[in-house]
Every structure is written in C-alpha cells, then in structure tokens.
From TrEMBL, chains A, B:
Residue ranges of domain Transcription regulator PadR N-terminal in the record: 15-87
Organism taxonomic ancestry: Bacteria, Pseudomonadati, Bacteroidota, Cytophagia, Cytophagales
InterPro entries: Metal_resp_DNA-bind_regulator (IPR052509), Tscrpt_reg_PadR_N (IPR005149), WH-like_DNA-bd_sf (IPR036388), WH_DNA-bd_sf (IPR036390)
Protein name in the entry: Helix-turn-helix transcriptional regulator
One matching Pfam family: PadR
The species this protein was found in: Marivirga aurantiaca
Length: 113, 113
DNA sequence: TCAATATACTTTGTAATTCTATGTATATAG
DNA sequence: CTATATACATAGAATTACAAAGTATATTGA
C-alpha cells in the first residue's frame, strides 16, 4: 500500500492525467488507478469524490451528467485547459523532487552537498 | 516552490537519504536540501526539527550532541539500521507511484486503462 | 562597539485537511 | 431474493503540519 502522503502528493496529477486521456467518471477512475498501479494504489470513493469536487471548483475539470438507457446515470468529467496547464505544473514539480531523490539514491558517500 | 503535499511526501526519504551519506545536523540538513534542489525546496526550521524528532522517536535515526571549541553545540543525527530499511521502503513506494505517473505522462490517447 | 545577520535548536497552538463512516439508490449475478 | 457491484455524496472526527515565537551564541561589517 502506498503511504498517505505519497497518495496525497500524486492524486491531482493522476486524476488530471487520466482525464487527459479521455473523459471518465468517479467510479471508473478509481478502478483505472487500481489497475494502472497493479493494485498498489486503491482509492476509496470517500477519498476520490471530494477531490473531484475540489478540482471542479478550481476549474481544472468540468462535469456533466450523462443519462443512458443502458447504464445508471454517471457524472462524466472532462479536463479543462486550466487543468491541462495544472497538470504540466504538477509534472514539473514531481520531476524536480524526483531529481533530488535520484541524486540521493545514486550518490556515493561524501559527495559534497 | 514545491507544493506542500509533495514536500510532505518526500521529506522522510530526503532526510534519511542525506543521513545515509553521512551524519549531519538540523541546520545543515536544511541547507543541503536547498542546495541539492537548486533552491526549489526550502524547509523552515519549524518544519524540519519536528520531523527529526519523530524519526528519532521511531528509531530510524539517533542523535548525539557534539561539543566543540570551534563551534556551537550541535545535535548530530545518524541513520540506524531500521532507518536504512525504511529508506528502501520509501524508495520502493516512490518508484511505484513514479511508474504510474510516467505511464500517464507518456501515454497515447485511448490506451486501455 | 554594537547592530544586524547567521547559526542552532525547541515547542505550542491552531488552521487546515483528510478520509472514515454513513447514507442513498439502482443493477446484476448467483 | 439477496449479496455484491455500480455510482455518487457529505458530515465531522481525527490527524497533522507548520507558522510563529522563543532562547541563545557567533560572526560580520559599519
């Protein structure tokens, strides 16, 4: 299981990244994440839905209910332009921290930092 | 500036990683992180010291005061065996999330997740 | 000489956040 | 016909991070 902190730090980028692939809805997003992570990341609905609401409030995604005869009503989310921009920023920050960690993992002792 | 969440998610690995390089003390650790990140990550003392105390309480690091005639008293920290183990676990978790994010960043549209 | 800044560590309290738990409801599989 | 899966929502308990304030010494430079 992935730690709380790491989950929190990656949630925004993961959701935006998934929606950049194509529109989706809460329940399916949870399953996609589980599948993508090989079961290592598992969001409860109570964890995910509030995040979706916040992202929508912040204008990074937008929703619309779809009614179909085949399935139950679903609230589909779509990434906005602001959301795509936010995703780039998330990526940049992640890579920055990743760079620091890679230095530490690969470093020989007594490197001068 | 790196977001709060990302900072929180990486703090433990970064501190343990730095101490694996060699013993150090709070004030210096703050400066090392700043240097390693090119100024992007900047911990306040109020942020770092409580983390050091927690890591010590958890047995991942241990401290001893050093008195010197040249400098002021410093509390040096040293990583423990348990700390080295914890660092490996942190690394593994980070890489796991990193794998998911890389998939999302590189994915072509309509990949089946 | 003395003021400002850098070094060095500590802790309290609160502000913010998280997510567990609970609720609603329908569809389907066995 | 019931258990499970699908689908979304939210209140509030519980946690937690960290800004702010405190203590104290060393050094720089005006």
């Amino acid at each position: 299981m992935i730690s709380k902190n790491l989950t929190a730090a990656s949630t925004k980028a993961i959701i935006l990244g998934i929606l950049k692939q194509g529109n989706s809805y809460g329940y399916l997003i949870i399953k996609k994440i589980k599948k993508m992570s090989g079961g290592k990341m598992e969001y409860s609905d109570g964890m995910l839905y509030p995040v979706l609401h916040r992202l929508e409030k912040d204008g990074l995604i937008q929703s619309n209910w779809t009614m179909s005869e085949d399935t139950r009503p679903r609230k589909y989310y779509e990434i906005t332009e602001a959301g795509k921009q936010a995703l780039l920023e998330e990526k940049e920050q992640w890579l920055q921290v990743n760079t620091v960690l890679e230095k530490l993992w690969n470093l020989k002792p007594d490197t001068n930092y």
